[in-house]
What does this fold into?
Amino acid sequence: MPGFDRIANFYDRLARLVYGQAIVKAQCHFLSQIPPGSSVLIIGGGTGWILEKIIQTASPSYICYLEASEEMMALAKAFALENLPHDLSRIDFQLGTQEKLKELGAFDVVITFFFLDMFQGKRLGQVMAKLRGKMNPGAIWLFADFYHPTNKFRPIANLLIWTMYRFFRIVAGIEAKALPDFEAHFGQLSLEKMGEASFFHGMIVTRRYKSISMKSSQPK
It folds into this structure.
């Protein structure tokens, strides 16, 4: 299990130092598309600042906050207690990995922000399939992560991504060594891409997907 405990206290500051507000903007971009009263699953949410944005923007009825790092979870709980004291009843903090999904019900919204990049190959496909299985009919999936741009910024982006993976493999023990083809994996899950936006010279991408039935996803 990735060990983000060691970097939990400076994770957000490190991200802002390198990417400014781009990561925050990417995560917030599609929050307004969450229907009011939705049930929301956030996996790998980190320090919890996104909770306030989601509650302010979408007013969900229930949020399951699934996080593997004990230190990240402690920070998220402390943030919620300080900033969202009247909303704590709708936040369910669950400590664990994606393996805990089997204990959970289905959701109207699944959120994976800078989470799927920890996996690769068959393992990534398995994790995404588990998440897809937790989506109600017509549910949406909000995704944000890093991307290899095709513009003139690509050499710098490639260097940043290479450095980032080596850093997190050393300090957090993630299994992935390189960015996967996220779009190809999403294409296997009976999801329709409803929107996309990019930030930081195209190196950060956010997408909104909607679940469709297996039948409707077949070619006509």
Q: What stands out?
A: DSSP finds seven helices and seven strands in the chain. Strands lie at 39-43, 62-67, 91-95, 107-113, 135-146, 191-199, 204-211. The chain has one domain: 4-211. The radius of gyration is 17 Å.
